[in-house]
Amino acid sequence: MKELHVMVIEDHNFQRKMVVHMLHTLGVKLVWQANNGKQALELLHQKETRSIDVVLCDLDMPEMDGMEFLRHLSKLKPGISVIILSGMDDAVISSVKNMAGSYGLRLLGAAEKPASLEQLKLMLDEHQWVEPKIQPYASISPVCFTLKEILYAVYEKQFEPFLQPKVEIKTGRIIGAEALARWRHPQLGIIAPYAFIPLLEANDSMEELTFQMLKKTATASRRLHDQGFAIDISINLSLSSLNDTTLADRITRTVVDAGVDPHHIILEITESAAMTNVAEALENLTRLRIRGFGLSIDDYGTGFSSMQQLSRVPFTELKIDKSFVSDSPTNHSLRVIVESSIELAHKLKVRSVAEGVEKQEEWDMLKRMKCDEVQGYFIAKPMEVGAFMLFCEEYAAIHYEEPKMAAQGGVRY
Ligand code: C2E
Ligand code: CA
Ligand code: CA
Predict the structure, then answer these.
(1) In the beta sheet, which residues pair with residue 106?
(2) Considering its fold, how many domains does the chain have in total?
(3) Are residues 348 and 229 in the same domain?
(4) Per-residue pLDDT of the chain (413 residues; tens, 9 = 90+)
(5) Phi, psi of 59 (to 5 degrees)
(6) Which of the four, 167, 178, 218, 227, has the lowest number of CB atoms within 10 Å?
């Protein structure tokens, strides 16, 4: 384990000393201590505390409580790892977790009081292997592109799909992949979608990128089928594209021209896009379904939909958002949401897919709940098409019933 520098904020002397003692036992040499949020902030302003990697923080403290402290912390040390020390129930922890995430902090977990050595160790280990929220290229210098730069790159066709496998739980086989846009920047390397999609969306300029992705994804699909991998590929559509009634025809033509049967392509639309009342969107979606495309409701659970609204769109797959999946084995509310989403999918006779699966316990739980498919870092991260083909070959050769942690999975971004 890399040497860690930790800060413990806890007003209860005995509890704090116990945690500090456990940290020393786990090999942490440098531990800073504070009685409350205010004192912690004063310490954090000192030069000596610059190297702190992880902050352990109680929620209920005098003078400045944990919530207020986390807000200040996020400004002082964006992205820093945090462990919450609390005796509160799941629902409270879960809302603090959301709050910390929205402030851009990396919550490693919540330790019940009194914390156990094992629990602390697991969470500190998490700090070591969880990849930083900020991508490596962004950490060198926070890259911010102008619309003009992005549109030029689109014109230069610098965008390509990275594929992330989707595995059927029952058989353990790769039966699909999601195509996720990556910008292969000539100087900066691979750039993730958050650096270009929001700006394109905001300027109503997604069209070109969508078709560039569709074309390259259809070509990849053709190559995969030629190599004997009969898998379906999913591609994301933005709401703005759905308003043009010529969309379904243009998508069909692009896919068919690449020699691909639309039955092998799934179009993902976010829940809010799928629930739109816009007649044009419904016309497009229905037409695409009739042509044979699969339709998936992406980020399910993050928007608002009623059974009646769901029944208006002829979708074939329900993709449960990763914010519900991660931690669901240990969080009662999340587990209920995931389980009822799977049940809903089955009642509507569509496939259930869980995204963001990172851990064995999540896989086991989803298997018990009879979820159809999973996607997530537990299997592999998105990778370039060539690496994906190799991954499929290795995966098929090993052909395990249940995947082990995916250390062998291609290029990771
Ligand atoms: P999304 O459609 O919800 O895609 C899933 C995102 O979750 C991907 O992020 C993927 O890399 C990430 N992911 C997958 N497994 C895990 C996991 O186990 N843990 C965690 N923490 N994350 C996981 P990515 O590639 O950065 O894409 C972000 C979003 O950008 C996508 O979210 C989608 O909304 C959008 N996007 C990406 N490509 C396209 C595209 O070609 N067109 C459109 N319209 N949107 C796209
Ligand atoms: Ca998606
Ligand atoms: Ca999603």
Answers:
(1) 81
(2) 2
(3) yes
(4) 568 899 999 999 999 999 999 999 998 989 999 999 999 999 998 888 888 999 999 988 888 888 889 999 988 888 899 999 887 777 787 788 878 888 888 888 888 777 888 889 888 888 876 544 444 433 333 468 999 999 999 999 999 999 999 999 999 999 999 999 999 999 889 999 999 998 998 898 999 999 999 999 999 999 999 999 999 999 999 888 888 889 999 999 999 999 999 999 999 998 776 666 678 888 899 999 999 999 999 988 887 776 666 777 889 999 999 999 988 999 999 999 999 999 999 999 999 999 999 999 999 999 999 999 999 999 999 999 999 999 999 888 775 544 545 444 433 33
(5) -95, -40
(6) 227
Range(s) of the domain holding residue 369: 147-399
CA of 360 to the centre of ligand 1 (A): 21
Q: How far apart are CA 228 and CA 224, in angstroms?
A: 6
For residues 200 and 242, membership in a common domain is answered with yes
Domain assignment of residue 132, yes or no: yes
Out of 83, 117, 140, a domain closes at 140
Residue 108 main-chain phi, psi, to 5 deg:
-80, -25
Alpha-carbon distance of 234 to 318, in angstroms, equals: 12
Protein residues near ligand 2, an ion, with CB under 5 A: 236, 268, 298
The tokens describing 399, both together, are: 């052909």
The verdict on 134 and 191 lying in the same domain is: no
In angstroms, the CA 55 to CA 83 distance is 6
What lines the ligand 1 site, CB under 6 Å?
164, 180-181, 192-193, 197, 206, 210, 213, 236, 238, 298-299, 322, 355-358, 375-377, 382
Same domain for 76 and 33: yes
Q: Kindly report the backbone phi and psi dihedral angles of residue 95, in degrees, each rounded to the nearest multiple of 5, phi listed first.
A: -75, -30
Contact predicate 215/174, CB 8 Å = no
Please report which helix (H) or strand (E) contains residue 85, including its range. strand 81-86
Residue 44 maps to a domain: yes
- 53: CATH: 3.40.50.2300
Cβ atoms 340, 289 nearer than 8 A: no
C-beta separation of 84 from 93 below 8 A? yes
pTM: 0.71
